[in-house]
């Protein structure tokens, strides 16, 4: 498994905890930036991470901004991305089990590093349940064609 991670200046505070969680799980990652707290535009990082996911260069992605909302909206504009904005471990688990999310988004101004680490671990240790949920994923995918 390879994960692409990216953030803007508002999410950079969570990146070390997310990377630590990936390392503890033995998951390889690529860091798309940003690397400072200077103001940058989150859509640029959503695009960088999500293009790696849709191309197959990365299996999944992690996106971080101030709230996780803006970067998740940007990510979901990219065909093939199912990005879930997560605010607790249950959401991280359900994002995978029910929605087969391939990217998660979190906010550095609303999530602590400890929470982010737990959310990442839950996201990457959960499995898609399939069944009736696959039918719904197929309908989501169909929306991208319309």
Give a verbal description of the structure.
With 146 residues, the protein is α/β, with parallel strands linked by helices. The chain has a single domain, classed as Ribose 5-phosphate Isomerase B, Chain: A. 45% of the residues lie in helices and 16% in strands. The protein has six helices and five strands; from the N terminus they run βαβαβαβαβαα. Strands 2-1-3-5-4 form a five-stranded parallel β-sheet, with helices on both faces. The radius of gyration is 14 Å and the shape is globular. The mean pLDDT is 97.
Residue-averaged pLDDT: 97
Number of strands: 5
The SS-based structural class is: alpha/beta
CATH architectural type: 3-Layer(aba) Sandwich
Instruction: Output the CATH class name.
Output: Alpha Beta
Which properties best describe this structure?
146 residues; alpha/beta; Ribose 5-phosphate Isomerase B, Chain: A
